Amino acid sequence: MIVLMHDIHPTTVRAVPRIIERLRAGGYTFVTVSQLFGKRMTPGKEYTELEPVTPEGADSR
Question: Which of 22, 31, 57, 58 has an alpha carbon within 20 to 30 A of 39's alpha carbon?
Fold first, then answer.
């Protein structure tokens, strides 16, 4: 699952700690996008396909 939240909204910023706490309690693991894709990402480049890779420590949900 990918969750996108914009930090320009103060209500979102305030909610993030509780959201993270609840997701962790539900067994989710947090990784960067580069870890999710399994390779270094180039800013501005469009990635349209994901190679079938499960990053180390990532949940397959």
Answer: 22
* The overall pTM is greater than 0.70: no
| pLDDT tens digits, one per residue of 26-48 | 999 988 888 888 888 888 988 87
Q: Do the Cβ atoms of 34 and 28 come closer than 8 Å?
A: no
Return the sign of the alpha-carbon dihedral for residues 43, 53, 4, 16. negative
d(CA 46, CA 19) in angstroms, rounded, equals 28
Spatial distance between the Cα atoms of 4 and 46, rounded to a whole number of angstroms: 17
Q: For 32-53, give the secondary structure using H, E and C.
A: CHHHHHCCCCCCCCCCCCCCCC
